[in-house]
Amino acid sequence: MDNLIIVKGTCMFVKLPQDLDCNNAAVIRSESDKIMERESIRTIIFDFEKTNFMDSTGIGVIMGRYKSIKLVGGSVSAINVNPSVEKLLTLSGIHKLIRINEVSGLKMPVK
Predict the structure, then answer these.
(1) Number of domains in the chain
(2) DSSP states of 7-56
(3) Which structural domain, as residue segments, surrounds residue 69?
(4) Rounded-to-integer distance, Cα 96 and Cα 111, Å
(5) Is residue 72 part of a domain?
(6) CATH number of the domain that 66 lies in?
(7) What is an example of a GO molecular function annotated in this UniProt entry (predicted)?
(8) How do beta strands 53-54 and 19-20 pair?
(9) Domain annotation covers residue 110
């Protein structure tokens, strides 16, 4: 799979695949949850640079991680969100919960 999860300190960067759908969502959910159980993650940054399509399971991945991170007082951001994905995030209401494209100049760290 094309996704990549990198942890730097208390921040988890999740590079999302081209299609964030039911085929990819389960793997992203599982891997990110394992990391969150092991590490003291306080910030999750979803990088949508390559993402062109997202369905309801993709929205569920983001919402699930948001709920988990809020329990420990953390935050979630989305970067490199294209207009079509941003529209989905707005229609789903996620834009009220997470920062979208507000982290200027942030790049995915190299593993």
Answers:
(1) 1
(2) EETTEEEEE--SEESHHHHHHHHHHHHHHHHHS---EEEEE-TT--EE-H
(3) 4-100
(4) 31
(5) yes
(6) 3.30.750.24
(7) anti-sigma factor antagonist activity
(8) parallel
(9) no
Instruction: Report pTM.
Output: 0.89
Closest CA to 76 of 98, 54, 100, 108: 98
Burial, 51: exposed, middle or buried (Cβ in 10 Å; 0-12, 13-18, 19+)?
buried
Amino acid at 45: I
Structure tokens belonging to residue 78: 């989305």
Average pLDDT across the chain, whole number? 90
Residue 9 placed within a domain: yes
Residue 108 covered by a domain: no
Q: State pLDDT tens for residues 69-88.
A: 999 999 999 999 999 999 99
How far is it, in rounded angstroms, from Cα 93 to Cα 77?
A: 14
* pLDDT tens digits, one per residue of 85-107: 999 999 999 999 999 987 655 56
